[in-house]
Amino acid sequence: MARVLPLSTALAFFLLLWAGLGFSALGLGLALGAGLLGYWGVARWQGRMLSQGPSQAALERLAMKEAWRRGGFLRPKDLFPYMGEGEARALLEGLAVRGLCRKEGDGFRF
Fold it and tell me: 57 with 91: CB under 8 angstroms?
């Protein structure tokens, strides 16, 4: 699934350049080269983005959506499929400090 974006970019470059150059033999070679360069460039960029992991804002949105699914009450262990319990506790406590939820017993109420 991670290769869909680079493949789409390569296909778009190839088709646009080949059609733009009049479907010639020279155009075919240039279009193939541009498609490969497009694939390589987007694959590298996407790899860097995926290796950084989700941002803090994305993790906070995930916690809020999970709280919504669970009726507004969330425990750190409820986020176990997405992150470790210590990281989840720190995330929820950070949300509580900002006033987006409040601590109730062993969990947090949104």
Answer: no
Q: How many residues does the chain have?
A: 110
**How many Cα atoms occupy the beta-carbon half-sphere of 94 within 13 Å?**
13
Tens digit of pLDDT for each residue in 23-73?
Answer: 999 999 999 999 999 999 999 999 999 999 999 999 999 999 999 999 999
Question: 110 and 76 in contact (C-beta within 8 Å)?
Answer: no
Please enumerate, as own/partner, the contacts of 90-93 that have beta carbons within 8 Å and a separation of 24 or more.
Answer: 91/59, 91/60, 91/63, 92/63
pLDDT range class, residue 2, cuts 50, 70, 90: confident
Task: Read off the amino acid at residue 58.
Answer: A
Per the structure block, which two tokens stand in for 43? 């694959």
Give the list of residues 6+ apart from residue 80 with CB closer than 8 angstroms, or none.
88
Pairing relationship of beta strands 73-74 and 107-109 according to DSSP bridges: antiparallel
